[in-house]
Amino acid sequence: MLGAEVTFDVALPKIVWGWLVSTNMWAKSIATGSFMLALIATKTYQDNRAFFKISGVLLALVFIAITLLVTVLDLHHMFRFWHIFFYPHFTSAVTLGAWVVSAFVVLLLIAFWALISQNEKLWNRIFVPGLVLGFFSTIYTAGIMGEATAREVWVFPAEMIAMLLSAAIAGSAAFLAIDGLMGGMLKENIRKHLSYILMVSSGLYGAMFIGEILFAKMHSEFAHHVIRQLITGEVAIYFWIGFALTFIVPVVLAGVSIQTKKYTYSLFGALSALVGLWFVKHAWLLAPQTLPLS
Predict the structure, then answer these.
(1) How far apart are CA 35 and CA 11, in angstroms?
(2) Residue 278 is part of a domain; what is its CATH number?
(3) pLDDT tens digits for 167-181?
(4) N or C: which end of the chain has fewer CB within 10 A?
(5) 185 CB neighbour count, 10 Å cutoff
(6) Helical H segments across the chain, by residue range
């Protein structure tokens, strides 16, 4: 029939996107979140400028390397990944993401050179492009998930916000963890601000999941079954571990640390958030794939 459109309407025999993709999203959140936060912090906190420059660049380089490694390993034809640069199709979020992340890596290398050469002018020049490329490197995965039209719970606007909150959680948690493990190098007001970022971003991200749990049934039958898988089904163990470690523990411990000014609590909250974030992302990635699409 003229104008008819056929979509993917059969059951998948297995999970297509597994732990490699979960690790990709987790590591990317740490890389982009820590770098963007470092750029802002070096403008805001002059007394601890060196801490944020060194730790921000090193965190970003290490975790973007992990992101790229697991991405290549997950490709069906990993030794053809160069095709995406020589035969690009810019209508695909995958292609756009590959180019954006590549530009982000180049910028990180420039930042590393600015760091080791102590070139302050060069560091200041990467502020705006660093935030722009960090932002788009964070959200491009939301575009890929949004292109999976059969997965009704992977909606681009919501996924974009989730990716940005993940970056805020990961970035603030990474700096709090490094500061705590190194015996406390940051001033108290900076620890307080990082604890606020961790607490608020974890709370908002957790609220998004609570909203999904409460209102998915109103959206569609497929979304309702996805949430059932999430809270009582095959991936429930991942979800509830992640929910507790990412949303409950960090919010409580960050709040306690702010009130008591004992930032050891923030250290444990940060470590909990970094571990729990992987479990949450893994559960959210697997849950829709456990259901038939037809």
Answers:
(1) 40
(2) 1.20.1630.10
(3) 999 999 999 999 999
(4) N
(5) 15
(6) 19-44, 49-74, 83-86, 93-116, 120-125, 127-147, 156-181, 188-219, 221-232, 236-243, 249-260, 264-286
φ/ψ (deg, to 5) at 15: -70, 125
The boundaries of the domain holding residue 281 are 19-290
Whether residue 2 lies inside any domain: the answer is no
Contact 99, 137 (CB under 8 A): no
| Tokens encoding 55 | 């730790």
What is the tally of structural domains in the chain? 1
* Angstrom distance (rounded) from CA 282 to CA 22: 5
Q: CA 287 from chain center: how many Å?
A: 18
Express as a percent the part of the chain with pLDDT over 90: 58
pLDDT-flagged residues of the chain (< 50): 1, 6, 8
Amino acid symbol at 247: F
Reported for 229-236, long-range contacts at CB under 8 A and 24+ positions apart, including other chains, are 229/287, 229/290, 229/291, 230/283, 230/284, 230/287, 233/287, 233/290, 234/286, 234/290, 235/282, 235/283, 235/286, 235/287, 235/290, 236/283
CA 8, chain centre distance (Å): 28
Instruction: Please check whether residue 121 lies inside any domain of the structure.
Output: yes
- Specify the pLDDT at position 73: 83
Residue 212 lies in a domain: yes
117-141 residue pLDDT tens: 999 999 999 999 999 999 999 998 8
